[in-house]
């Protein structure tokens, strides 16, 4: 036998060889391919599910973010007109303390001009009433200075042109006059009762918004804050006054 | 019929079958399987000693063939494309079974040692000889001597360096030489 190259011989022999697979080989492969097809068909549904959930989450998130925006913007919309008015009032209050005093003096003069009021107590109470409502008076002064000027000159003006506070004052004056006509003697208690009643009415009127008929929360809060400030200030003054008096008494007693 | 025309007809048929198989036509896939499975089982058998395991590797290979058939470009031979998939699948199977071991040694290769042996052995005996080789030797030997891969290709596929591939081939040849000598002795003794 002739010598041959082993590797070439091996290659040649093996290349020619074929091995028949088992009878069910194709069935097994076909089954795998079918399963693969089913899995492939299922895949889009999975993706659809995932996509749907992502869209759902996004929708919920956008909804929440929208509501947040509404909540953030809502106060702006509601406040804007009133806030401007409020700011105006505030600036007027701060900038025109002198004007306020002047107005008070003028009002006092108006009361003095009204000779129907003989009782000094009533005048005093009227004055305190004005002090409690400086904002309204000043606002009135600023927004309608002519009106106030007219009022100073002629306190008997028709009621349509007057503010609610002024109307109340005039009502009280009228009631005091009526009481005086009936009893001929008006006591301090009567005047106090009338003034307290008028004060409550004015406060209530300020709280209720004329257009909507709803109590304005901001004004209510402001009222409470101003009351708190005032009471605290009063307490401090009273404490100082009491301590001053006790010191004064002590000094006097020591001198004696 | 002219044999050249026969080849053209076969190629045309195969191309049509491939187009149908890409569209998941099971019948076309079956025909392609029947055409190439015997040869591919033989290829897998080079590497895997157990025939059932070799068939399993071959089915895995065909499964990948049909899944990736759309990526096959008609530029090359379809059988060659399938064959490469089968080789990789067989190696992958051996890796999973953790059969592969490579002894890393750099050896100067002498090309004249094994190619001139008087032998006339049958294919079954050749396969038996190859089966006796260690997995590392066997893979490199089959890939280089029978499949025609280059050392750099073997190194890339088996994730080894070229030196290792060469040394494995050298050892495989040496071992085969010894075994063929023994086989020759036995056959010559038998004939005398």
Automatic annotation (TrEMBL), chain A:
Parts forming coiled coils: 162-189
Superkingdom to which the source organism belongs: Bacteria
Keyword annotations from UniProtKB, A to Z: Coiled coil, Membrane, Transmembrane, Transmembrane helix
Keyword Membrane: yes
Transmembrane segments: 45-64
Keyword Transmembrane: yes
Stated name of the protein: Anti-sigma factor
Organism: Flaviramulus aquimarinus
UniProtKB/TrEMBL annotation, chain B:
Segments forming domain RNA polymerase sigma factor 70 region 4 type: 125-176
Species name: Flaviramulus aquimarinus
All residue ranges annotated as the RNA polymerase sigma-70 region domain in the record: 32-98
Sequence similarity: Belongs to the sigma-70 factor family. ECF subfamily.
PANTHER family for this protein: RNA POLYMERASE ECF-TYPE SIGMA FACTO, RNA POLYMERASE SIGMA-70 FACTOR ECF SUBFAMILY
Pfam families in the cross-refs: Sigma70_r2, Sigma70_r4_2
Gene3D superfamilies per UniProt: 1.10.1740.10, Winged helix-like DNA-binding domain superfamily/Winged helix DNA-binding domain
Keyword tags: Sigma factor, Transcription, Transcription regulation
Protein name: RNA polymerase sigma factor
Residue ranges crossing the lipid bilayer per the database entry: none
Keyword flag Transcription regulation: yes
């Amino acid at each position: 036998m002739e010598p041959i190259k082993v590797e070439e011989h091996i290659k040649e022999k093996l290349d020619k060889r074929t091995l028949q697979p088992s009878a069910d080989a194709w069935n097994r492969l076909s089954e795998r391919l079918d399963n693969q097809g089913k899995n492939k068909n299922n895949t889009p549904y999975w993706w659809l599910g995932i996509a749907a959930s992502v869209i759902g989450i996004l929708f919920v998130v956008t909804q929440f973010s929208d509501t947040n925006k509404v909540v953030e913007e809502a106060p702006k919309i509601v406040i804007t007109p009133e806030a401007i008015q409020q700011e105006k009032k505030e600036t007027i209050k701060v900038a025109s303390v002198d004007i306020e005093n002047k107005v008070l003096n003028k009002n006092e003069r108006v009361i003095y001009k009204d000779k129907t009021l003989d009782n000094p107590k009533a005048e005093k109470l009227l004055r305190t009433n004005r002090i409690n409502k400086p904002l309204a008076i000043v606002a009135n002064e600023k927004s309608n200075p002519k009106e106030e000027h007219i009022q100073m000159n002629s306190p008997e003006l028709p009621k349509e042109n007057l503010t609610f506070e002024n109307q109340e004052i005039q009502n009280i004056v009228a009631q005091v006059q009526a009481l005086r006509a009936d009893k001929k003697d008006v006591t301090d208690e009567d005047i106090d009762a009338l003034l307290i009643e008028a004060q409550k009415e004015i406060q209530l009127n300020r709280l209720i918004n004329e257009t909507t008929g709803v109590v304005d929360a901001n004004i209510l809060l402001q009222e409470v804050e101003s009351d708190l400030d005032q009471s605290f200030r009063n307490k401090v003054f009273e404490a100082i006054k009491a301590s001053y008096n006790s010191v004064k008494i002590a000094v006097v007693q020591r001198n004696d | 019929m002219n044999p050249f025309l026969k080849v053209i007809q076969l190629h045309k048929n195969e191309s049509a079958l491939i187009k149908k198989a890409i569209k998941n036509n099971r019948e076309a896939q079956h025909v392609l399987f029947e055409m190439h499975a015997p040869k591919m089982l033989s290829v897998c058998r080079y590497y895997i000693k157990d025939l059932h395991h070799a068939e399993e590797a071959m089915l895995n290979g065909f499964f990948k063939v049909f899944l990736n058939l759309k990526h096959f470009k008609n530029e090359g031979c379809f059988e060659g494309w399938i064959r490469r998939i089968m080789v990789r699948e067989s190696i992958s199977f051996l890796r999973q079974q953790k059969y592969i071991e490579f002894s890393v040694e750099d050896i100067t290769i002498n090309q004249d040692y094994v190619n001139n042996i008087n032998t006339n052995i049958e294919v079954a005996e050749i396969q038996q000889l190859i089966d006796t080789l260690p997995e590392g030797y066997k893979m490199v030997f089959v890939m280089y001597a029978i499949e025609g891969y280059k050392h750099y290709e073997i190194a890339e596929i088996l994730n080894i360096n070229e030196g290792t591939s060469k040394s494995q081939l050298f050892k495989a040849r040496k071992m085969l030489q010894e075994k063929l000598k023994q086989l020759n002795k036995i056959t010559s003794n038998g004939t005398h």
